[in-house]
TrEMBL record:
<keyword id="KW-1003">Cell membrane</keyword>
<keyword id="KW-0812">Transmembrane</keyword>
<dbReference type="Pfam" id="PF03626">
    <property type="entry name" value="COX4_pro"/>
</dbReference>
<dbReference type="GO" id="GO:0005886">
    <property type="term" value="C:plasma membrane"/>
</dbReference>
<feature type="transmembrane region" description="Helical">
    <location>
        <begin position="64"/>
        <end position="86"/>
    </location>
</feature>
<keyword id="KW-1133">Transmembrane helix</keyword>
<dbReference type="InterPro" id="IPR011743">
    <property type="entry name" value="Caa3_sub_IV"/>
</dbReference>
<protein>
    <submittedName>
        <fullName>Cytochrome c oxidase, subunit IV</fullName>
    </submittedName>
</protein>
<feature type="compositionally biased region" description="Pro residues">
    <location>
        <begin position="112"/>
        <end position="121"/>
    </location>
</feature>
<feature type="transmembrane region" description="Helical">
    <location>
        <begin position="33"/>
        <end position="52"/>
    </location>
</feature>
<dbReference type="InterPro" id="IPR005171">
    <property type="entry name" value="Cyt_c_oxidase_su4_prok"/>
</dbReference>
<feature type="region of interest" description="Disordered">
    <location>
        <begin position="100"/>
        <end position="121"/>
    </location>
</feature>
<keyword id="KW-0472">Membrane</keyword>
């Protein structure tokens, strides 16, 4: 593709991904909402980095830096999600208000046992 046509094509794809992201935000995707949104955002970031930051024209050095940064961001997000999944229930200290589950946080599997000082809802 020639330069101007490539820019228009990448711009059209970015516009389509933004429209898809907006359209999917109106749907209830449940637990798939965040992974789908992050996947679309990753596609947009890669397109912007490779075409508008001209990484497609450069040899391996800048690509390696961007790739390494992406791997480390993925590792950090994975560690945060692993820590949140292993967090003891509930993490709120006992107080004057009853503890209840937030909507959408129902878990499958065996129920967790609350500490003896915390009344169950």
């Amino acid at each position: 593709m020639r330069g101007g046509v490539r820019v228009l094509a990448v711009g059209a794809v970015l516009l389509a991904l933004a429209t898809l992201s907006f359209g999917l935000s109106r749907l209830h995707l449940g637990v798939w909402a965040v992974p789908v949104a992050l996947g679309i955002a990753l596609c947009k970031a890669v397109l912007i980095a490779f075409f508008f930051m001209h990484l497609v024209e450069r040899p391996g050095g800048p690509r390696l830096v961007i790739g390494t940064a992406g791997v480390f961001v993925g590792i950090l997000v994975g560690l945060v999600l692993a820590e949140a999944a292993a967090r003891a229930w509930p993490t709120l200290p006992p107080g004057p208000f009853p503890v209840s589950r937030l909507p959408g946080t129902e878990r499958s599997g065996p129920p967790r046992v609350a500490p003896p000082w915390l009344p169950l809802p």
